[in-house]
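Protein modeling request. Please complete all fields; requests missing the sequence field cannot be processed.
Requester role: graduate student
Desired output: 3D structure, token encoding
Chains: 1
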Amino acid sequence: MPAMLILGIESSCDETGIALYDTDAGGRLLSHALHSQILMHREYGGVVPELASRDHIRRTVPLLRKVLADSGRSLGELDAIAYTRGPGLAGALLVGAAFAEGLAASLGL
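Delivered output (109 residues):
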């Protein structure tokens, strides 16, 4: 199987994660970035789903830019995009799915 460059997106609850994985040479993680919402939710005593979803929207693009910059790769080099489908908070999962599917469509993946 030819090597693939895969972007992974995690948004199932209160952390937004982006990673870039290369399947070449047995596979290796090229870069990853994570934003935790723990401090934001602490004052409510638990995760507030609507706040979590809105924060994923704010964090996804900056994290993607960081991962690409840190790895020295570009969107045009991606072969596939993966995202967390579940389980998780419905709104938070929808943010990741919509972002991944929109990005994939724009890149013809």
